[in-house]
Specification:
The chain is about 45% helix and about 30% strand. The protein is α+β, with helices and mostly antiparallel strands. The model has no long low-confidence stretch (mean pLDDT about 75). Keywords: Signal.
């Protein structure tokens, strides 16, 4: 019996030693060689900056997606529509010292960014060792003002054309009534 016990203890110790020796190596720490602009994009009075990243084996795909993400970040700075919904439910039941309260709170928030970024430029690109591409895009605030003024001008032209058509219709009506 002692012999069986010693064999079991020996096998257990051998199994323990083997399992400890094959522990997986710790995961590599994230790269700390990232450029400063990735972790702290510049802040300027005359431009918006956005940084995006994307990991792909295909450099072109990674660059395109990272650029799109950076532009989306700028769009969120320029114009964001926020929709929010809150559901709250509370129920209390029981008698005097034996009361139970059930509470439920659910909050849902959706943000949609929408902006036309004509004139935005990629100013920095960096590719990490793991294939992640980082892109910084700049959008000058003067380009935003120009786009807004152009849209306002187009709207004013549309309004002027509508007024012209209304005047013509009134002249036609006056001419018909004069007959």
């Amino acid at each position: 019996m002692k012999r069986v016990f010693l064999i079991l203890v020996s096998l257990s110790l051998i199994g323990l030693v083997i399992s400890c020796s094959s522990a997986p190596e710790p995961a590599a720490a994230p790269s700390s060689d990232l450029p400063d602009w990735v972790l702290a994009p510049p802040v300027a009075d005359d431009a918006y900056y956005g940084v995006g990243n994307y990991k792909s084996a295909n450099l072109s795909t990674a660059r395109t997606a990272a650029t799109a993400n950076a532009r989306a970040e700028i769009a969120a700075q320029v114009e964001v529509q926020v929709d929010s919904a809150v559901k709250q439910y509370a129920q209390e039941a029981g008698v005097d010292g034996n009361r139970q309260v059930i509470e439920f709170l659910e909050t849902v928030t959706k943000q949609v960014a929408s902006a036309t970024l004509n004139g935005s430029k990629v100013v920095e690109t960096y590719r990490d060792d793991d294939g992640t591409v980082y892109v910084m895009v700049m959008y000058e605030k003067s380009a935003l003002r120009e786009a807004a003024e152009k849209e306002l001008f187009v709207r004013n032209e549309d309004a002027a054309f509508a007024e012209f058509k209304a005047d013509e219709a009134m002249k036609w009506l006056d001419a018909e009534l004069a007959k």
